[in-house]
Amino acid sequence: MDKHGSAAGQGPQEVDLVIHGGWIVTMDDRRRVFRDGALAVRGDTIVAVGPSAEIRAAWRGRETIDGSRWVLTPGFANGHVHITGEPITRGQVPDDAGWRANVFDWLIPTYLAQTPDDERLAASLCAVEMLRTGTTSFVEAGTILDLDGVVEALSAIGIRGRLGQWVQDRAFAPDEDQARLTDVAVAKLAAQFERYPVRGNALLTGWASLVGHNTATDALWQAAADLAREHGGGISAHMSPDPADADFFLATTGKRPIAHLAALGVLGPTVSLTHAIHLDAEEVAILAETGTGVTHCPMTAMKGGYGASAVGLFPEMQAAGVRIGLGTDGNNNGNAADIMRAGYVMAGLFKDARRDGTLFPAHEVLESLTLKGAAAAGLAGVTGAIAPGYKADFVAHDRDRPEWVPLLNVVNQLVWSADGRGVHSVWVAGRRVVDTYCMTTIDEKRLFAEVEAAAPGLIARSGLPVPQVWPVL
């Protein structure tokens, strides 16, 4: 094979798809950007990338597309998103709800009031929003109740995801049976890894998506780590968006959360901790030493007043080599599921907080959106780049829009100018799931109508209002 992935000395080989003539931001090992680039796809895999003239001479597509209108990037990875509950109560939680009120007074009652149909609708809506804004893979945040129903709904849509049922086990009431709670939680983890195995080409697989905070006992953490290693999966969990997590661990273990998890032997490259705002320098060093990742949800931090810009050690994590991915969290926390918006905020938040324009430059943010996010989902070397051997998960951004004119610095413009509204088309595993701003796999208008009809019932069952500052007549 030559440097573009084609067979040297042969005539054009037939592939399923060739796209030519566009800008391609490859995110390959050399971070090459082609101004007039092309890619070739066979089945679900990219087989060649390079200058248009060379690729078209070596490969003949059963379908050939002129991509001169587009900037092609790898599909983005959303490392932490609540795909049920919140998508169909979008905007309900008031701005002045801090972390505790947001979680305990608003979000949990909403989750518990869902029906299985609500979950399927919410997951479908969230997946559509992610795909329509360039996200091709995600890690669910750990609050799914009806996992089988959600997987069934998502299977029809065509997104790549890592999912797990709501799992926690700590007994907070004196009459709860701690051993039984742990057994039930571990059984849930084992069952979802068995039903939705990670190995193979399945788009949707099981994951150890722990609620985290102080809700998991040491036994559950250790069982999750063992199961993840056995099945080739990973662990995600909320940790330290608020000082309460550190206070709990210090009071009960004598160690801060990251130090305690390290002592348990559960940290490592297959673990991603979400938020990780209220850490100290020792915890940052432990994350770097163990290769544990962090998923930063900057939009949630801003809306919830978590203190990321005031106390977050994200620049120190970046300098230490901690893998930082990005998440949108929930629609009531982090606004839209458009991960490009999270990239924009990440690029600016700490520049302003530290008065240091060198922090989180656009090219590093793009790595968090692609390669680092893919690694957090166990997809390193599988997605996150447009390169031979990678899955054909990629996004076509429409240059025929004002934010792309003129096109001078494609990386800067992806982060600082563009957002998900400019996503024209999306491919996942070689399948075009978004075409000219519309889903190809689901009737969007019908879905939107069903969500509109379902939302009032869910809100009524939760017993919560929809607060309005101004009169709505």
UniProtKB/TrEMBL annotation:
Belongs to the metallo-dependent hydrolases superfamily. ATZ/TRZ family. InterPro entries: Amidohydro-rel, Metal-dep_hydrolase_composite, Metal_Hydrolase, MQNX/HUTI_composite_N, MTA/SAH_deaminase. The keyword Hydrolase applies. The lineage of its organism: Bacteria, Pseudomonadati, Pseudomonadota, Alphaproteobacteria, Sphingomonadales. The keyword Hydrolase applies. It comes from Novosphingobium nitrogenifigens DSM 19370. Coiled coil: none annotated. One of its GO terms (molecular function) is hydrolase activity, acting on carbon-nitrogen (but not peptide) bonds. This is Amidohydrolase.
